[in-house]
Amino acid sequence: MVHPVCPLCERPILPEAKQSLHHLIPKLKGGKGGPTVLLHQICHNEIHATLTEAELARDHATIEALRAHPRLRRFIAWVARRPPAFHSRTAGGRRKR
User: Fold this and answer.
1) E strands, the chain, in order
2) Do 8 and 47 form a contact (C-beta atoms < 8 A)?
3) Of the residues 33, 48, 74, 94, which has the maximum number of CB atoms within 10 A of its CB?
4) Low-confidence ranges of the chain (pLDDT < 70)
5) Which pLDDT score, from 0 to 100, does residue 42 have?
6) Using alpha carbons only, what angle is made at residue 68 by residues 67 and 71, rounded to the nearest 5 degrees?
7) Per-residue DSSP letter, 75
8) Is the Cβ–Cβ distance between 8 and 62 less than 8 Å?
9) pTM for the full predicted model
10) How many Cβ atoms sit within 10 Å of the Cβ of residue 3?
């Protein structure tokens, strides 16, 4: 069986892994019904702990832009060394909308 791959960390998303859909343009900023990507939950949490909804809509509406962000680049290097189903709480919590 071929598993989907998280476009942020590029690890496979196993059935037992926590996962969620990320709206590339936040719903609150006009992205309702827009493109989504399947991510590990830990990757999705880190995106929202790092960037506001406005920053996501304005400057980070693609996977390439997310992967280029300095904090997310460090996170990706760290999480890439973890097993595919790895999950932990994200430090810092969710950014303001």
Assistant:
1) 19-23, 36-40
2) yes
3) 48
4) 91-97
5) 96
6) 85
7) H
8) no
9) 0.91
10) 12
